[in-house]
């Protein structure tokens, strides 16, 4: 795998990742915009008149998120409560007045067999979550164990459900952040795999979740490699033209 610096500085790949993150993560939550429409909003700032205001903001916010993600990774910021709230603040910009703030009232997850963490316990629960993930990743001995630690923590994050809304989008972003930090291809859950993904969140076999994620990461690695190679080819072409 290329170095984190090479990946983060490959503008084409990071924009491509941003479009796919925005499209699939919001689609899992019900956003109906196509990937092409999502790309138009993020890459061209084009407002589709068919889009509702909410759907537009849900997608557009990933354009604001990308530089925050890159800066945080470049500065090697560890996951903590403040960074998680910062990510949520960008993801939920213009969508909720409490963007970037932990929930103040109890919330429930439709169809879930658990009750999310109570509001007054969220700060300490999320701090423990960050510490546990950090411990597991430091003690992982191979990529598979690191992926399992990230996925297990993702399931736990969704059970904490620390925000009034946007928990799924934030949680999936944290998976991507952790993957980058640990030299793993980012994990983008396709909207077409929503049912399988939800089944894992609701208590599915973590080993199967790992296999599912690893297949997606293999495909992501190939896509990443193509963008990196394309950049090298373009650079060589410019050198030959001089």
UniProtKB/TrEMBL annotation:
Residues 79-230 form the Fido domain. The active site is at 161. It comes from the Bacteria. Keywords: ATP-binding, Nucleotide-binding. ATP binds at residues 165-172. The record marks 29 as: Important for autoinhibition of adenylyltransferase activity. The keyword S-adenosyl-L-methionine does not apply. One of its GO terms (molecular function) is ATP binding. Pfam families: Fic. The keyword ATP-binding applies. InterPro entries: Fido, Fido-like_dom_sf, Fido_containing. This is Fic family protein. It comes from Helicobacter fennelliae. The lineage of its organism: Bacteria, Pseudomonadati, Campylobacterota, Epsilonproteobacteria, Campylobacterales.
């Amino acid at each position: 795998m290329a170095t984190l610096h090479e990946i983060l500085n490959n503008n084409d790949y990071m924009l491509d990742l941003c479009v796919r993150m925005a499209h699939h993560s919001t689609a899992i939550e019900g956003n109906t915009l196509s990937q092409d429409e999502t790309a138009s909003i993020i890459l061209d700032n084009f407002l589709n008149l068919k889009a509702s205001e909410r759907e537009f903001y849900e997608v557009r916010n990933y354009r604001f998120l990308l530089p925050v993600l890159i800066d945080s990774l470049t500065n090697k910021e560890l996951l903590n409560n403040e960074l998680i709230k910062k990510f949520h603040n960008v993801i939920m910009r213009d969508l909720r007045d409490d963007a970037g703030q932990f929930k103040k009232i109890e919330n429930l997850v439709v169809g879930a067999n658990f009750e999310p963490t109570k509001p007054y316990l969220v700060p300490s629960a999320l701090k423990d979550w960050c510490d546990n993930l950090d411990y597991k990743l430091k003690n992982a001995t191979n990529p598979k164990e690191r992926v399992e630690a990230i996925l297990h923590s993702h399931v736990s994050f969704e059970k904490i459900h620390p925000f009034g809304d946007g928990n799924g989008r934030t949680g999936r972003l944290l998976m991507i952040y952790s993957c980058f930090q640990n030299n793993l291809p980012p994990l983008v859950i396709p909207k077409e795999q929503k049912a399988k993904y939800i089944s894992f969140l609701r208590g599915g076999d973590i080993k199967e979740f790992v296999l599912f994620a690893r297949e997606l990461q293999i495909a992501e690695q190939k896509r990443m490699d193509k963008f990196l190679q394309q950049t090298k080819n373009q650079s060589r072409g410019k050198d030959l033209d001089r």
